[in-house]
Amino acid sequence: MSLDPLRVWAGPLPDVDISDRATRLGLNPIVRAHLDDRMGAQDLAVRYGSLLSHYEIAGSPDEAEVAIYPFVVASRVRTDFTRFLKDAEKLHRRILVFGGNDLEPIMPSESVILLHPGPTRGAQPHADALALPYFFTDRAAGNWNREDVPRPSVAFCGQGAARPLARSGQFLARGAHQLRRRTATQVVPPPISGHVTLRSTALERLRWHPGVDEHFVVRDQYRAGATTDFVRESTQREFDENLRSATYALCVRGTGNFSARFYEALSFGRVPLFVDTRCVLPLEHLIDWRSRTVWVDAADVESIGDRLVEAHPRVLADPLRSADSLRTLWETRLTSNGFFQHLPALIRRML
Questions:
Q1: What is the rounded radius of gyration, in angstroms, for the C-alpha atoms of the chain?
Q2: Could you count the other beta carbons within 10 Å of the beta carbon of residue 337?
């Protein structure tokens, strides 16, 4: 397999104000890294890492291995998106497309390789879909030690209950979305029952299981409804302290079919207690995710406590699920620098 940078063609690079944050984040990360001229070469290399070293913007499609749409695609795509796809297909190039927002956009062409945080397995009628990790600033502060004990302990801090009257309104909104999808398929819709219901069920089964110690801080709003920096920082500290308090972290999808907590848990050396909702996870060709987590299918969530108690002795004896091993996995393959080092080889396998 080639170790050379992946050569990508993005068409005429957009003339944008890279200093504007919203504009910058509207670019896919590869193009963003190569357009950013706000600092010197050394600082850019530190900031973007493998996004610069492992990818090369080709001057013409003939020099490229793959096309790459310059912008992030949300549920409503830019007017030039369809034209870009047609041009790339005429040149017999597969097209990398980065999806934004929580919901996975439906791609209209089998030429597309979609990169999105929460693909649903088998949901794309045409395109291939790969999972992007959730990227964030490391907060473990050099301490990801775990105090494992014979009884499994599970952490959860976040939205796991619905506000009064909110559940019925959300149900109606999801139902309306499903009806609209019949005539205009744009995104993979969330389940009509909602993610909070699934989280709530998992929390209740764990809370009342006699063999499990629960460390739960259950909210009825995302980030406790934080609207100020002070409250956001406070809730973040509480979240991190909660993660440190247990061996496992309960990880259940949100609006999108992914869990940011899944990656945060790994960065803290905690074992994801992962409820699978037909998720595609990052780098599945390299990582045996079932050997790194305690895996529970969504259909089996009623027995999540029994599954955890049964798995716990094996977890304690398994070096792949030690705190250091999970932390290393996150550092080397699930940070931006680690993931984008490994992505070129995967893309070349798909061409």
A1: 21
A2: 18
pLDDT at residue 4, rounded to an integer: 93
Pairwise CA distance, residues 56 & 66, whole Å: 11
Quote the pLDDT of residue 76. 64
pTM of the model: 0.91
Q: Which CATH architecture has domain 153-329?
A: 3-Layer(aba) Sandwich (3.40)
**Residue 51 near residue 336, CB atoms below 8 Å:** yes
Asked if 304 and 273 touch (Cβ cutoff 8 Å), the reply is yes
Q: Where are the domains of the chain?
A: 6-133+335-350, 153-329
232 three-class SS: helix
Cβ pair 5, 55 in contact under 8 A: yes
* Sequence-ordered list of residues with C-beta below 8 angstroms from that of 53, at least 6 positions apart, any chain: 5, 45
pLDDT of residue 232: 85
Q: Which pLDDT score, from 0 to 100, does residue 175 have?
A: 52
pLDDT digits over 218-258, tens only?
A: 988 776 666 788 888 988 999 999 999 999 999 999 999 99
